[in-house]
Design goal:
Elements (H helix, E strand, L loop, with lengths): L18 H12 L2 H13 L7 H20 L7 E6 L2 E6 L3
Antiparallel strand pairs: 1-2
Helix pairs in contact: 1-3
């Protein structure tokens, strides 16, 4: 049985699949927080994007911090889903 209730999702963009992936993550992180969701939806709908060089530059430090988290936990594939239920932590990596 599953309990119904609110869930908190933390989305942490990283680009590990090549230069386009890295630029997309940096560009998203370079945007104001309130603009990221709409931009992510656009990237998902249109595979070819023209990232703004200014957004990429502004997002570089945040992207490096996200990559450090990814590497410190020794994750190997994306997406990574970490589910916390009470005291139980479940981690899955890569596409199901």
């Amino acid at each position: 049985a599953r309990e119904a209730g609110p869930h908190t999702v933390h989305w942490i963009p990283i680009g590990i699949l090549g230069p386009k992936s890295e630029n997309a993550a940096q560009a998203l992180l370079g945007l104001p927080a309130e603009a990221r969701l709409a931009s992510l939806a656009s990237l998902m709908a249109t595979p070819v994007s023209t990232a703004n060089p200014g957004d990429i530059a502004r997002g570089q430090a945040a992207h490096q911090a996200n990559l450090a988290i990814f590497r410190n936990f020794q994750f190997r594939a994306v997406p990574v889903v970490v589910a916390v239920t009470g005291e139980r932590v479940t981690v899955s990596q890569g596409l199901p």
